[in-house]
Every structure is written in structure tokens, then in C-alpha cells.
Amino acid sequence: MNFEYMKNFMDSLTEWIIPGNSVVIYKDGKKVFEYSSGYSDLEKKIKKTGEEQLYIYSCSKVATVTAALQLYEQGKFLLSDPLYEYLPEFKKMYVKDGDRIKAAENPITIRDLFTMTAGLSYATNTPAFEKARKLTDGKMDTRTVIKCLAEEPLLFEPGARWNYSLCHDVLAVLAEVVSGMRFSEYMKKYIFEPLDMNNSYYHTPNDVIISPQYIYEIQDTKNIVELQQKEHTSGVVKRAYGNELVFGENYDSGGAGIITTVDDYAKFAAALANSGTGLNNNRILSSATVKLMKTNQLNEAQRKTMNWRRLRGYGYGLGVRTLIDKAESGSNSSIGEIGWGGAAGATIIADTEEKVALFYAHHMLNPQEEYYQPRLRNVLYSCL
Fold first, then answer.
1. Reduced to 3 states, what is the DSSP secondary structure of residue 10?
2. Which residue intervals of 116-182 are DSSP H helices?
3. How far apart are CA 347 and CA 334, in angstroms?
4. Confidence (pLDDT) at 242
5. What is the pTM of this model?
């Protein structure tokens, strides 16, 4: 193994517009590479170390579905179960149909939550969220928010297509109901602690300082390939504040709630790459469930609506992208390689065939995913 290409690629990103980045890579259960480039605090010129606490946004989803699958393994639910059997507010759903609203023909199933086919959206400036803010005095506990969300009409008939949405937030509430524990407490007890993830949290402890995050304001182009040509752009990197995807102090976001370090979340990635067994030999999932997790769950019609360019050649398993067509993707990774990304540039990769795991992060909103994510995967596998 030679990770010179990875080092050079990360340096090229920080020489471009990314303020700083870090990566940890495991192979066969051993840490084989870690590296940081650039700055954690651009204004103060504080070098990136990889020990910074970061919002990982949607990379949280991979841990959320892992937690939910633990409960599936215990027989708490079936994927085919209607959601309303556990969350009764989803019993009578309505669907947008042009200018009118009609009753849904089919119930949302738990599989629909895992596969982003439930008909939900990511819209939060809605009457449902406004109602939840009033009911909770702005504290927005997860259960109340999701009860209000169920009052919103669906975008489409459950199961009709794929749409990126708040499905994983609803999945977190399902986990609360069937486990009898608050979701953040469940995650701590059954994901973080078993894997010795001692720097991973929901909601920031008083003694933890979140690393600054940034945003790149683009003025003259939105084309990602053009954007890499610095002479053709006039964007500005600016500091950004807060996390708008955690809606209140009591909201445990299954889709975007985890605060962690690169080294800590890489331990979780390594457990998935080792078919559910952590670096300390603690098992968080069975190998059979990991195989199911990485199996494409979308039919052809659904997959056509998962049309993000960086996901060409990928299907969607139980809450994660999964590589199903190397020719279409142009990726040199293995069939069944899984992962996801986050809104500020976090990326998790786990591959049970090669037993390789990667967790990479920068901390910049609008993180140039279409540019860096496919390249990062290709560089990783070339280094092996």
C-alpha cells in the first residue's frame, strides 16, 4: 500500500478552496493511514490535526440505520411492516396530486424509511414544523416533531420513487418507540460505547468546542469541473455558523445529529467493513445483516429517480448507497462498497470485500461533493 496519491489529493483540495481536511483509513482491521491538510481555523491559521469535533450531518445516517438494524435483528419489527403499527400518526396519509390532495393508496412501510421511498421531503419551513415549535416552546423533542410531520401530505405514493428526505429522522423515532430509549441514549449505549467512540455525541457537551465551519460563495459558476479551475472563479470562503438540521435542543436527528472526530467515526466505518465487528472485537451487527444492508433495495423505476450524478452506478441499500455497476459508475471500488456523505464534506466508505474503511472530513458547507467524492473513492482504491 502506498498512500502518496491520497496525501497529494487532499493537499490539492486545500490548495484549492477547502480550508482543511482529515482522513483515517483502516485495512483488515488495522489503521494504515491518517493525514490532515490545511487549517481547522482559517482566520487564525490553526493547522488541521484530525482531532477536531465536527458536524458530520448526513454521515450520521449510516449510524442511524445501523442502530435500527440492531432492533430489526432482535425481531422488534419487519421491513415489510406498516409504519403506523409503531407510529400511529402515520395511519391515514395523504398525497399531493397536482393541485389537489388525495388519500394515499398504500401505507408507508419501514422498508420505505430505510430506502428513502416513503414520499417524505426535507422541507422544514412548513406548517408542521411551525406547529411543533409552538407545541414544544422551541425545544422540538423528536417525538413531537415527527407527529407533526405526519400531518404533512406526502410528495408521492409510498414506494413509488426515491427522494432524499427526513426518512432517517422518522427511523430514529421508530427506534425510540421499539427500544423504549431516547435515540441519543440508544446510540451512546449500543453504537458509541461498544466501539470505544469516546468523542462522539448528540448535542454538544459544555466542554466540547466545535471546529469552525465554512461556506464557499460562488459568484461566477456553479459547474463543479469549472470550479476547480481557480482562474475561472471568483468565489469567497466565509465562516458559517450553527447547524440548521438540528431543530432544537431536544431533537435527536437521525439524519444529521452526530458530532464526532475523524478518528472516532473511522472506528465505526471499520466495524462495517469488518462485517459488523469493531476493532475491539465487539459486534454491533451480524455479517448477515451487513450483507442485507449493502444489497440494493431499489427497483429500476425507483433507481431512475436516484439521479445524483455522483451516484451513477450506485443503488441504495438499507440507508446507504451501494455500488452495483462499476462500468456505469466509473469507480474502481468493489461491488457492494457502501457509504454516504454529509453537508459539510464528511464521507464514509466501508467495503467488506476488501475490508477497507475510510472516514474523511472537511468542514465546509456546499462541500463540492460532485467533484471530491468520486475522486476520493478512486484515489483510495488506487492506494491499496
1. helix
2. 127-135, 142-149, 167-179
3. 17
4. 75
5. 0.95
